[in-house]
Amino acid sequence: MGMFERDRQVFADAEPLDDSYEPEDVRERDEELEKYQRALQPIIDNRPTSNIFLYGKTGTGKTVATKYMLSHLENSAVGYDDVDLSTVWVSCENLSSSYQVAVALVNELRKNQNKDRISTTGYSQQRVFDLLYEELDALGGTVVIVLDEIDNIGHSDDILYGLPRARSNGYVDTVRPVIVGISNDFKFRDNLSPKVKDTLAEKEILFPPYDANQLRSILEPRAEKAFHDGVLTDDVVPLCAAFAAQDTGSARQAIRLLREAGELTQAKDSETVTEENVRDAQDELEKNQLYQGMQELTTQGHAVLCALAYHQALDEVPVRSRDLYERYLTVCDRLDADSVSERRVRDHLSDMHMLGLISVNERNEGLSAGRYHEYELDIPLKTVLDVLNSTSRFEELSDIIKSTADDNNLLQSGISDY
DNA sequence: AGTCCACTGGAAAGTGGGGGAG
DNA sequence: CTCCCCCACTTTCCAGTGGACT
Q1: Can you tell me the distance from the alpha carbon of A166 to that of A173, in angstroms, rounded to the nearest whole number?
Q2: A188, A148 in Cβ contact below 8 A?
Q3: pLDDT tens track for A80-90
Q4: Which of A8, A24, A292, A303 is the most exposed place for a label (fewest CB within 10 A)?
């Protein structure tokens, strides 16, 4: 036998645990689906159809429900000669403005006709909108436009103003656009300009987080398919459901947890997935998320993190922003990198706080020292240094910080499994 | 009750880079 | 080449903020 022996297989078919898996039925969302169907019904009846907005945190079934409804809608539409329906789906995950969404829509519409894609930069916004109307008009009939994770566009909501009014403004005349907006962020709706809000959120459907029982019911059929018989001990699915329910109520989280637990089990070449595997999987996933968050920071972000790590290594935490900024300047100096303003560093710090990398404490000492924030790492110093060490430009500095921390005996702080 | 410290964080304007059109 | 577009990241400016102090 060579170095690569085949592991004992716990998975029968891992696909039901994949993020992209589409179950044939949507569980635990009966009420929402019914509302959804009522909202889409006018399309089949050839009546004017309202735009629809779905709200709810990630992993609450919005996307799955939409895929499900659309495929049923398309199937039904085929049965009626006078219903001319098309659908376009754009995920706005990496799109940060209306402009980019419009470009993505144009390209999605062109893809179906083998036309050339347009560039993501260079045109004026109006030019892209014109192209979009052109494509839509060429399609005709009712076009359901799904904008998934639309909250990513932030305040730049021009497209949400333009699209629903395209017809009444005379930009298109043969097509009836119906917009389905999907948002992970509740605040997104409130921050929309009032004129957009009226037209867009005509029909709203809320997707609340799942509780542990619902998650269990979602997991069970998938677990059944994904794993060989007898591989899962009884507590595994309920535990995954419980962890996810406690944290976010996200089905995606629960499913990932179950998959990770299976993968850990398989890697260990053991026969059954146990409660312990689930706990390990939970740690592993959390760790990966932090790791990834750190790696994706910009150079400036890394420099700020590096400065904070230095303070941590010197046991000078929590640090107030003034002192941290000074250290940050010396870090930039060492790296021969440009430094940014204090204001900008505060933004980087608040980003890292969002990611869960650092903790912030607000202090107020009135007349004597005023009001300020204090920062410290929220994750083990060693983890930060590992990431910095694997980031170009930071190798040398992270070594220096590491030895500083060693001198202060700050690296073996009990959390050695990171 | 009012002062004041030392920031905090919102807003707006600037910068440079990627790209189209003529 | 020139002029225009958009965007990520940044700087500049500054009106709050809120607890300790008088």
Answers
A1: 8
A2: no
A3: 999 999 999 99
A4: A24
Nucleotides of chain B in contact with protein CB (under 7 A) are: 3-11, 17-21
Which run of H or of E encompasses A374?
strand A371-377
d(CA A287, CA A281): 10
pLDDT score recorded for residue A291? 94
> Please, are residues A245 and A57 in contact by the beta-carbon 8 Å criterion?
no
Structure tokens at A291: 């790791």
Give the CA-to-C1' distance from A99 to B21 in angstroms. 19
Instruction: Say if residues A174 and A140 touch (Cβ distance below 8 Å).
Output: yes
Give the strands of the sheet with A371-377, arranged side by side. A319-320, A371-377, A358-364
For chain A, the residue count is 418
Buried b (16+ CB within 10 A) or exposed e, A46-69: eeebbbbbbbbbbbbbbbbbbbbb
Q: Helix-strand-coil percent breakdown of chain A, rounded to 5?
A: 55, 10, 35
What tens digit of pLDDT does each residue of A34-51 get?
A: 999 999 999 999 999 999
Q: Is A260 helix (H, G, I), strand (E, B) or coil?
A: helix
Domains of chain A are 30-206 (3.40.50.300), 210-293 (1.10.8.60), 297-407 (1.10.10.10)
Sheet of strand A175-183, all strands in order from the earlier edge strand to the far edge: A85-91, A141-148, A175-183, A52-55, A203-206
Cα–Cα distance, A303 to A339 (Å, whole number) = 9
Coil, strand or helix at A379: coil
Is pLDDT at A365 greater than 60 in this prediction? yes
Q: Which residue is nearest to nucleotide B3 (CA to C1')?
A: A367
First to last CA, chain A: 33
From A190, A196, A204, select the one nearest A164 (Cα to Cα). A196
Q: Are A348 and A281 in contact (CB under 8 A)?
A: no
Pairwise CA distance, residues A188 & A152, whole Å: 9
**Contacts of residue A305, Cβ cutoff 8 Å, sequence gap at least 6:** A294, A297, A352, A357, A358, A384, A388
List residues, Cβ < 7 Å, touching strand C.
A 96-100, 121-126, 156, 298, 300, 339-341, 343-344, 347-348, 364-368, 370-371
